Amino acid sequence: MNDIRNAARQDFDKIIQDIADYALDYDTTKSELAMLTARYCLMDSIACGMLALEFPACTKMLGPVVPGADMEGGARVPGTAYELDPVQAAFNIGAIIRWLDYNDTWLAAEWGHPSDNLGAILAVTDYLGRQGKRDIKVKDVLAASIKAHEIQGIIALENAFNRVGLDHVMLVRLASTAVAAQLLGCKREQTVNAVSNAWIDGCSLRTYRHAPNAGSRKSWAAGDASARGVRLALIAQSGEMGYPSALSAPIWGFQDVLYKGEAVVVNKPYESYVMENILFKISYPAEFHAQTAVEAGVILHPQVADRLADIKEIVIETQEAGKRIIDKVGKLDNPADRDHCIQYMTAVALLKGGLIAEDYEDDVAADPRIDALRDKMTVKENPTFTENYHAADKRGIGNAVQVFFSDGDKTERVEIEYPVGHRNRREEGIPLLEAKFAASLKSKFTAEEVVQLVDIFSSQEKLEQLNVTDLMKRLSRVG
Q: How far apart are CA 60 and CA 256, in angstroms?
């Protein structure tokens, strides 16, 4: 064991160096599939942000830290008139993208939403462009997005921070720090310093994601993490020091203090794997472990809609992770509680034949039929779903739903392995994703503006060659 009295500094932990080197040096544009998927990711993230702006619970969180602390010529927040410093802009953008739990998802030993990092990426690039520091194209945004996805997702493959009670947004902070440093033009020493500080920050608890404390913090936590990433990159660029053994230091390092003494493991090289295999939430704003359960519920809706009073039992089979994090009984207090309850989401699907963000609000939840259906549900793990969930060549998110009636009758057992947003269903999903994007713009933009934005995003070359400042101008609302 290392002598903790020894003050001699070691080299930076390999994990820190590898993240910095990847962020600074790797060419993500060489993967056509990753760049194509990054375009869809940006499109979808903007759609999620536009939809979130319809909810007062979200918009009350936006703007400067205090009234009047705007920044003329600062980074803009899509769908609003705000111009902010890049740290606060990252919070705003990250919050609207994440608010409805409708943006892309990565499921592994740890889970999360890698597009949360676009809060940092868009804020930094628009700020740099407007301040005349760099001429940045959207191509650079897509390339940085691939890197952020990769850093967050590769670390998530074998490290289940959730099992020790830690929140996955720590990986947003880490990825945002690294890509923000690269975009800001940080040198290698500055970048490793920034990344080490991201690890030093440790991690918040997952308390607010689970019963009995589930709440709206889970909708703004990623914005907070992406903003912190920008802040850490900026202070590192100013010359602030780093901490070489941030992970490995005995007693005081991340691994000993927060990870139960276990080593953080990274066995897969950083390339573009995560973006190429990302999961889009297209059909339903539902926690991703339940996406296929909702789809199964929608399929079964015609068979049960007229027989609700006759239902004896509803059996939901899910993966181990799904059972562990969204299997809930008892009273659900708020929308954040409901959108992380597999029983609630499936009940609404069975009852209405669909699920939209408004279905988590109090007026819909007051329908007594929803809780009546929840009370009849049994949720159990299907080992095959769990196995396929962890298989690198499958990444399945299987669920099965079957309804049993009091007279002995029963519906078919509907099993769905891959949701519409999965890579295995891309051909089916992309037209729906494009429709989601176009529909989301209609509340904030004129018909002509919608057509123009759809046209820009429909062309890989046209979007990549657009200046970030031009795109953000098109997306902002003045006055």
A: 39
Strand partners, 205: 166
Q: Give φ, ψ of 283 to 5 degrees.
A: -80, -40
| Cα–Cα distance measured from residue 357 to residue 103, given in angstroms and rounded to the nearest whole number | 12
- Classify residue 290 by burial, with Cβ atoms within 10 Å: 0-12, 13-18, 19+: buried
d(CA 60, CA 43): 24
Cα separation of 5 and 20, whole Å?
28
Cα end-to-end span (Å), the chain: 61
Tell me the C-alpha distance between 247 and 256, whole Å.
Answer: 8
Identify the sign of the CA torsion 163, 166, 169, 174.
Answer: negative
Tokens of 170: 């720590």
Measure the CA–CA gap between 317 and 191, rounded to whole angstroms.
Answer: 45
- Cα 317 to Cα 323: distance, rounded to the nearest angstrom: 9
Residues 6+ apart with CB under 8 A from 391: none
- Indicate the residue type of 305: A
- Each of the 479 residues of the chain gets a pLDDT tens digit; together they read 456 556 667 899 999 999 999 999 999 999 999 999 999 999 999 999 999 999 999 999 999 999 999 999 999 999 999 999 999 999 999 999 999 989 999 988 888 999 999 999 999 999 999 999 988 999 999 999 999 999 999 999 999 999 899 999 999 999 999 999 999 999 999 999 999 999 999 888 999 988 889 899 999 999 999 999 999 999 999 999 999 999 999 999 999 999 999 999 999 999 999 999 999 988 888 888 999 999 999 999 999 999 999 999 999 999 998 999 899 999 999 998 999 999 999 999 999 999 998 999 999 999 999 999 999 999 999 999 999 998 888 889 999 999 999 999 999 999 999 999 888 898 899 999 999 999 999 999 999 999 999 999 999 999 999 999 999 999 998 75
| 8 Å CB contact between 169 and 224 | yes
Question: Within a 10 A sphere around the Cβ of 211, how many other Cβ atoms?
Answer: 16
Q: Specify the length of the chain in residues.
A: 479
Task: Report the distance separating Cα 363 and Cα 219, nearest Å.
Answer: 20
Least Cα distance to 294 among 378, 361, 352, 362 occurs for 352
In three-state secondary structure terms, 249 is coil
**CA-CA distance, 322 to 8, in Å (whole number)?**
45
